[in-house]
Amino acid sequence: MIVKSAADWEQDRPRLLKKLCEFAAVMKERPFDNEQGVRGVSAFALYWFIQEVQPTAVFEVGVWKGFSTWIIRRAAPNAKVFCFDPIIMMEPFLDMSRVGPTYRDPAATYLRDEFSCANTAELAAQSVRPLVFFDDHQNKLPRLRQAKDAGIKHIIFDDNEVAGYTHRTLEQDRLEINSAALLDQLIDRYEVFPALWDIDALLNDCLRVKEKGMDFPVTPELMEIYNDRDWHSYVTYVRLR
Ligand SMILES: C[S@@+](CC[C@H](N)C(=O)[O-])C[C@H]1O[C@@H](n2cnc3c(N)ncnc32)[C@H](O)[C@@H]1O
Asked: Chain centroid to CA 224: how far?
């Protein structure tokens, strides 16, 4: 498996900066400020990877208020979007004034099934380049296998920290000899999105995030994203063999 290195990311610096400025302009139109889920550099990482892959269908697993759905739609305006989250079924029973603003995409399909039980293989087969984004806090290796079984080669994972979090991550599996060998068999390319600025933060009172950033400029147009730089969730792109 090819792992994208810091030097590889450094080579992408001009493209990253150009795309980041584009993304900063997109973010001016955001439907609300996200609190739980992708934000700041992590929201950009999702946008970046989707634009790199140019998927024709996106399966989103873990929707919550729909901020990532909005990012997906902005990054891939013509893609078919399939959304999975038990929250969708629960909405009639929730006090939505406590949930706050949500984004639901009128062109997306919201499914009631769990991703692993749905007809994802059938849906993916109708698309030239399907991609799945997992932000559901479930163990990542089983999710990777489910994507493979569905015929989906392009995967983006949120929350892939080596320290672990609410679930077992690929970064943890890469440290263990048997699962590392398995990942090597399954994965062709592996890219953890880097910190663009230095971070040393305690998130959600439990997760220490300490990273040396790429020292991107702090300009007025990038200030909003810079201010959210602590929300670094190791967004990771995986291309299966
Ligand atoms: C961190 S939130 C998602 C945030 C969203 N992606 C964003 O960035 O705005 C995690 C969501 O995963 C959902 N979830 C938990 N288990 C799930 C499952 N098996 N399938 C799909 N979604 C699940 C939860 O209901 C919750 O809404």
From this structure: 19
